Amino acid sequence: MTQAPHLGRVLVLAGSDSGGGAGIQADIKTITALGGYAATAITAVTVQNTLGVTGVHPIPLDIVEAQARAVLDDIGADALKTGMLGDAAMVELVSRILDSAKGIPAVIDPVMVAKGGASLLAEQAVGALRTLLIPRAALLTPNAPEAAVLTGLSVETTDDLRRAGEALLELGAQALLMKGGHIAGDRVVDLLITRHGETAFEGERIDTRHTHGTGCTLASACATGLAQGLTLTESVARAWNYVHEAMLRAPGFGAGHGPLDHGWVVRR
Question: Among 99, 113, 127, 137, which residue's Cα sits nearest to residue 257?
């Protein structure tokens, strides 16, 4: 039997989205579309659609850990990606799982608020995320509001985004993808910041309400690239272009913040 090609195995620890636009569903679609292999440890089941989140059911910690161990002990992983964690106890558990997976790069998406405004991370968990997960991040992917919460800095401009990124490097992250979508302007600028320099990813702002799951999608796309052996810059560049096109091709579903077209690259 011939050996299967290296797909790039990504273990995602995150919450599910019943509407399919964000969370675990977006993660699986993204990883698969980019040629990777997705496995999951689901941290919460949410009730949501494009109009917002109306319910959250946390998964017991022992079940989350068992899911992750089952995957790591058998299938293995080439990259890890975190999303919605919910509370400090879940953050602490995930930090222990990351420690047990030494040498596997972790992409940490510090999910705090859903697109519709619902809180997805307890206020008391922010400190745990800051001290336990940021130092374990091969790549941290905060948007401007998340960066402001994590650093205590005002993040209203691209220069603010850069300063917040430098502060997050000081907290121990190996690299930051600082997302500028919340910063006003005709163009969107995301900054990939490492201790060796900065790379900007810039494009015209897309005038659309179909932005549900953009953060989850971008982080999962980055994790897939790392799992497949791409460099960090290559991974982010491919992810950035993938999300941009997925937004342009959004199917138009729902009355609120609609989902992206995760499958566009497959159909092409």
Answer: 113
* Distance of alpha carbon 109 from alpha carbon 146, whole angstroms: 10
Domain extent listing, the chain: 9-252
Residues 6+ apart with CB under 8 A from 265: 33, 34, 242, 245
Burial class (CB in 10 A: 0-12, 13-18, 19+), 7: middle
Catalytic residues: 179, 211, 213-216
d(CA 94, CA 111): 14
Q: Is the pTM of this model over 0.90?
A: yes
For residues 198 and 162, what is the distance between their CA atoms, to the nearest angstrom? 9
- 3-class DSSP state for residue 178? strand
Antiparallel, parallel or unpaired: β 175-178 and 187-194:
antiparallel
Q: Per residue in 147-201, pLDDT tens?
A: 999 999 999 999 999 999 999 999 999 999 999 999 999 999 999 999 999 999 9
Fill in the DSSP letter of residue 134.
G
Look up the CATH superfamily of 9-252: Ribokinase (3.40.1190.20)
CA proximity to 141, closest of 185, 190, 102, 68: 190
Going by pLDDT thresholds of 50, 70 and 90, the confidence category of residue 114 is low
